[in-house]
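Notebook, student rotation project (T.W.).
Task set for the rotation: take a protein with a known small-molecule partner, predict the structure of the complex, and write up what can be learned from the model alone. Partner molecule chosen: zinc ion. Sequence and SMILES entered below by T.W., checked by me.
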Amino acid sequence: MHAPAQASLEDVARHLDTVLRTKDVPDYPGAMNGVQVEHDGPVRRCAVAVDASLYTIDAAIVSKANLLLVHHGLFWGGSQPLRGRVFQRVRRLLAHDVAVYSSHLPLDLHPTLGNNAIMARTLELTPSSGFAHFQSIPIGVMGEADVDTATLVGRCDTLARREGGQLVAVGVTPERRTRRWALCTGAGASSDTLREAAAAGVDTLIVGEGPHHTAVEAMELGIAVLYVGHYATETFGVRALGEEIERTFGIPWSFVAAPTGL
Ligand SMILES: [Zn+2]
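Predicted structure of the complex:
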């Protein structure tokens, strides 16, 4: 009988950092991409989730995982005292020897494992260039199509329901066709991305979420916006990382679905 697969956290993290180009991709300060919490290890089982939260930490512990891999890490709130729920997160991780690895924009923009690339493929869209620039690096994707916008709405609705979201479609009229689309997962709708979409001649913008004013601006610009849900558009990348770890190290993984996808 083979011994169960295992690997050091250092080896797993080095592999992920290389594949994701963690050091080269800029990000928000709270992202803290890479290993956020170490453990005694070695890594024997992974849990992957969109968010590092008490819920996903507890689910990782129940599944006997000792590495939790997330898209939104522990430090989005900036420096905080280890009190209350922040303390509970850390306490549980340390008590159960669970490490945390987080990847935000490096995972959003990855050409094969990324949220945007996989979501485009799921929607039967083929990207031809980048979209939604952060410090001049494209996070999202865009491309050409020739499809009824209503058909795209149907595909987005199916995806939203499956991944725990709820589609809101703005500016979709009957007979409308999508010829140039752009996609940015997560909080993808903003005045900046709408400006970029308008300049690129995009007629249909697919995002996770965005503030109300983006719907108003989009209607004025004649751009249809499909809001699929922040959470629902970011479940792809972490699952792809789970598969990548299994492929490389033989370590099993499972996805922790959050009870509240927004
Ligand atoms: Zn996000």
